[in-house]
Structure formats: structure tokens, C-alpha cells
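Format is chain and fold; as here:
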Amino acid sequence: MLNDLTVLYAAHPALFAGSVFVLGLVVGSFLNVVIYRLPIMLEREWRDQAAELLPPGANPPTPGLDSGLPARFSLSVPRSACPACKAPIRAWQNIPVVSWLALRGRCASCKAPISIRYPLVELATAALSAAVAWHFGFTLNAACALGVTWVLVALTGIDMDHQLLPDDLTLPLMWAGLLAAVLVAPAGQSLPVAPREAIIGAAAGYLCLWSIYHAFRLVTGKEGMGYGDFKLFAALGAWLGWRQLPLVIILAAATGAVLGLLLIAFRGRDRASPMPFGPYLAAAGWLAMMYGSDLVGGYLRLSGLSR
């Protein structure tokens, strides 16, 4: 059965990409849960840890993101419900994209609006997954790239909402990249890389942003980024190798600078207000994973540095 499937997908890349697109819709629905629930779970954990350090009789930390939520709260419990009326979401109301369209973006019970962000995350995950499948084909490299893509989508959503890149995602992503470098033989594609490249990439990624962070703090007295950015860059280095890191940081910095200027110009954003850097790192890392060699080669040809 597996051999027949391998032959079928190898002979029909479009079929493989289409199947992965459907899978990406389902994964995107789960990533919506991760983006919403993981920060709440982490806040509860941190608050419990802080409460243990307080002296007897001291007031415990007040609830934050989880205010009004049940005591049991994880990625699977309780069932998804409408944020407005708390009505449970039935299975047919949870079909990726289709349910949102069928309900016209409103709760079936109270008609409260459902954010368009949910179907957008599902569609984005599906489209990125299909692109990965088309690019890598039915290979183990595609499975690795899909895993990286899904984690990057989750990190992007969480960082946009909370300016947080959880260790629960960045560190497993880094360790998985190092293990893949040892266990998965490179197939002439962008990932995984050789063990030496991965180890140096992880170390260089972390130390690069760590050095920039401390240099910026010494000069300005302010913190320019968070430690989660260091760990995400280290994870990208583990998967892509140290040679791709300059491309990733240039793409991320350029995109962040352009978008920041646009927000200041058209939305009146305060220059002093912080902007999450994780989404730009994630987007740049995904582009480098898919097209890094082509981007570097194209730049070298345009600049006349390559014959």
C-alpha cells in the first residue's frame, strides 16, 4: 500500500500537492487552537510558579488571559466554544474554511462575528504546505519541511498576538533540526543539512542575535528584541545551516523595516511601540528553506559577482 502510494505521488506531483493542501487545512485548524490556547496555558504555568514563591498570606497573581476559563484547559480540553455565548462548536461547524463560509462568519447560536483570521490561518497553512509538497516532492525532506512550516505558522500567530515565542515551540524545533541532520541523509535539497552545518548554524543563529541584543542595549539602554528571537534563529540555523543565516536576517530585517515604515506612515504607529520580530524571521526562514539557493544565486548574478 505504501509503495503504491509512493509511486502514485511520485508520478503525479500535483496530486501529492493537492492531498497536502487538504491536510494543511486540517493542520491549520489545529494551529488556530495552538495559537489561542498555548499562551494561556503558559501564563497559568508561570502564575502557578510565581505563587509558589510568594510568602504565606500574600495575594496570588491575578488571572490574565485565562480570566473566566475553566480550570481544566489544554490543547484538547475543553471543547472549542464561541467566545461570546460559550456555546460548544459542533463537528460540522468546525470544518476548515467551509464552516466559516457556511455560517457567513457568525456564530450559529448567538450570531456574534467569528474572526476571519481563523479561515485565513487555515488557508495560509494549506497553501504553504502545498507549496512545500510541490517543491520537495514525495520525500522525507518534504515531511521535514512541512513540520518546520507548521511550527513557523504557529509561532507567527502567537508572536503577533502576544509578542511571545514560546520555548515549547522554538526549542523542539531546534532539537528536531539537529536530530534530522544526523538521522536524515541530505538529498541535495535545502534541508536537512549535514550535522556540522546544523550545529554551527544553531550556535551562530543564537549568538548572532544575542550579540546584537546586548550591543543595542549597551548603546541605547533599551531591549531591541526578546530571547525567543534568538532561539527561533538558532532553530532556523539548525535546519538550514549557517550559510543561509545571512540571507534570513537580511530578508527579515528588510521586511520588518519596510512594514514598520508603512505602519508609521499610514496608520500613525508610534515609533517607540514594540513590533514582534518573530513573524519576519519565520517568513524569511521559510523563503530561505524553499528558495535560498535561487535567491542567493540571483543576487550574485545581478551584482556581477557570479559568471
Q: What stands out?
A: The chain has one domain: 2-79+117-302. The CA atoms of residues 298 and 304 lie 10 Å apart. The longest helix spans residues 13-53.
